[in-house]
Design brief:
With 246 residues, the protein is mainly α. The chain is 65% helix and 4% strand. The protein has nine helices and three strands. Strands 1-3-2 form a three-stranded antiparallel sheet. The longest helix is centred in the middle third of the chain and has 25 residues. It is globular and about 55 Å long. It starts with 13 loop residues before the first helix and ends in a 27-residue tail after the last helix.
Length: 246
């Protein structure tokens, strides 16, 4: 059986069950409902979702492949703790791909795509005023996804897909929402200008500013990059919750 369903109920295909479990667990990690170091237990998750352990096991394996969780031991799976190296590598990828995408978007933007981007900014402003962290994270992700789509390069999108979830997880650490909204508005203006060089410059500034903010929230105000915020360079790991809480 693909799921534990009452007799006579429609049986959900195994693949659909797996995707449902995977999507929910992924969002739980991104939103901070599952914190770094939290354990994922197949039996408990199967009970929670009302399914067999098979799709849960497959969902956990997918989360491992996506970089959200890892096996501490063969029988113990936990949500990963972000390290300074994790953060640096992901932001290096963002810098390479998103800056390029912004330039393409500026040269290929249409009135319709710009209107969609503007509408997302309006929604982000409302969520920022309400201090709605989860909604802000979702809209900001959709904003960047929209810019990527405006670039009109399917290979660029396919390169981003494997790390998209981890990038969402990472960017959710930055809680400087008003500053983020300002940067997105500036990026929108640069894309709308039709000037690829201007768009790339704003995208580069945005990514690097976001990197510094994320490091500050995760590893301490001095941003020394050693991973524990004490400036001793010992590289301790720290937890990366949705609000940068250790």
């Amino acid at each position: 059986m693909s799921s534990l369903a009452p007799e006579g109920a429609k049986i959900e295909p195994l693949g659909a069950v797996r995707e449902r479990v995977l999507g929910t667990l992924r969002q739980d990690i991104i939103a901070g409902r599952l914190r770094p170091g939290d354990r994922l237990v197949e039996r408990e998750l199967a009970d929670r979702f009302g399914v067999s352990r098979v799709p849960v096991r497959e969902a956990i394996r997918a989360l491992v492949a996506e970089g959200f969780v890892h096996f501490e031991t063969p029988r113990r799976t936990v949500v990963r703790r972000l390290t300074p190296a994790d953060v640096a590598e992901l932001f290096e990828l963002r810098e390479a791909l998103e800056v390029y995408a912004a330039g393409l978007a500026a040269s290929r933007a249409t009135p319709e795509s710009l209107a969609e981007l503007s509408a997302l900014l309006d929604r982000a402003a409302e969520a920022t005023r309400a201090d709605d962290a989860e909604t802000i994270t979702d809209i900001n992700t959709r904003f960047h996804d929209r810019v990527l789509a405006m670039a009109g390069n399917s290979l660029l999108i396919s390169v981003m897909e494997p790390v998209d979830g981890r990038l969402r997880w990472l960017t959710s650490q930055n809680t400087e929402w008003p500053q983020l909204l300002t940067e997105h508005r500036e990026l929108y203006d640069a894309i709308a200008s039709g000037d690829p060089a201007r768009a790339r410059a704003h995208a580069l500034t945005h990514v690097r500013t976001n990197y510094r903010s994320t490091v500050r929230h995760l590893f301490g105000d001095d941003g020394d990059g050693d991973g524990d915020g004490d400036g001793d360079g010992d590289g301790d790991e720290v937890c990366g919750g949705p609000h940068g809480r250790p």
